[in-house]
Amino acid sequence: MNLVPAKIPTRRAIADRMLQSGGQRDDFVVFESDIGYSTYSYLFGDAYPKRYFNMGIAELGTMAAAAGMAAEGRPTVVCGYGVFLTMRALEAVRSFVCYPHLNVKIFSSHGGVTAAIDGVTHQATEDIAFMTTLPGMTVLVPCDSASARAAFDLCLGFVGPAFVRLMRDPLFELYPEGTEFRIGGSHTPRKGKDLTIAGYGDMVFQALEAADRLEQEGIQAEVLDLYSIKPWDQKSLRESIQRTGALLIAENHQRRNGLGYELAAWCMKEGISLPFAQIGLDDTFAESGSYPLTLEKFGMDPASIVSSARKLIAEK
């Protein structure tokens, strides 16, 4: 599948949309913790300084302050790095945002090992587990610029907590501008009949490359982009695995308590029996290095997906 290299990462696409939206509506405010030049939230701050709050290197306090603003009735955006927003500030997200169901939108950069070069301290590989566990939290993971801009619009379009996982670096552009996205939706960028590869974010591209390689072996893999993690698209997954009869989950996250665990539990509950496997970190931290080599070392690259797919096909 021919993909267009991206010029900007999803964290920049979100910031651009935030800036654009700031001129269209004056009700929302933005909080960040002294890394606005990394998340690009500074663009909004430069344009609308009275609606932009840099709280310093204090994510817990930033989240608490954002909750206080939201409690006064204003839609509130928080930008930052995933490891700090989902762990350092987790208590505030749980007790001050989700429990009172406040209108706080968390845009979280450096998801998974897309921040490979920054090392383990900046690789958010447990964030999906934390955020999907919180009652009332909506979780989205865009893979490209169009889906990132759509994620911003979706989040500002409803009242309640939301978490959006973003990437450090640009990868590819997949969806044309104007593609429809929805809470609880998914897309199928590649159809197939032999197995389903379900993923989100950067792993959609790893899955698509793996599908290209599998096609050379006569295996037709279907790739499902579950950009909405919570809620997720049960209808599309059911239809896909009914066609293919095998399911491989590819996620840049710990296998434990990630999307794979969710889908495995759902299959058991629904009485669906089929060959099943997970791609992801296997109870380990990653390392600092280049993104492609880090994926390769920890079994999350296209070659690893191909290997797992072959095994699933053999089990059918």
Would you mind describing this structure in some detail?
By secondary structure, this protein is α/β, with parallel strands linked by helices. The chain has 2 domains: 4-173, Rossmann fold (3-Layer(aba) Sandwich), CATH 3.40.50; 187-315, 3-Layer(aba) Sandwich (Rossmann fold). It is built from 13 helices and 14 strands. The longest helix is centred in the C-terminal third of the chain and has 14 residues, at 302-315.
Write the SSE topology.
Layout: E1 4-5, H1 10-22, E2 29-32, H2 36-39, H3 42-47, E3 52-54, H4 59-71, E4 76-81, H5 82-88, H6 90-98, E5 104-109, H7 127-133, E6 138-140, H8 145-156, E7 162-165, E8 172-173, E9 187-190, E10 195-199, H9 203-215, E11 221-225, E12 228-230, H10 234-244, E13 247-254, H11 259-269, E14 276-281, H12 291-297, H13 302-315
Helix pairs in contact: 1-8, 4-6, 9-13
